[in-house]
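Entry 12.
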Amino acid sequence: MWEATALLAMVAGALFWIDSLRARERALAAGRRACERYGVQLLDETVVFASLRLARDEEGRVRLKRTYSFEFSDTGDNRRRGAIVMLGPDLADLQLEPYRIQ
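Predicted 3D structure (tokens):
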């Protein structure tokens, strides 16, 4: 019985890890698209995991809500912060720190 429980826990952990990698890739793609759209530079070409919790989507289903942070530059010599919220596999929110449009 113990072995089956341990095996089940390992499989669940592996599935969670794979799902987290996919969510991170989708968040990174969303960050790149947003930076291109607003004419700013995504710094370090990465997003950083910030938080994980359960939340409900628009249809009332419980989903994992992952928040990622990233940095961008509007002038090329500064760093500003942004955040991406993924609700399950979908982009729920994307925020950029205010910056002056040139």
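Annotation: Strands lie at 41-42, 48-56, 62-73, 80-87, 90-96. The radius of gyration is 17 Å.
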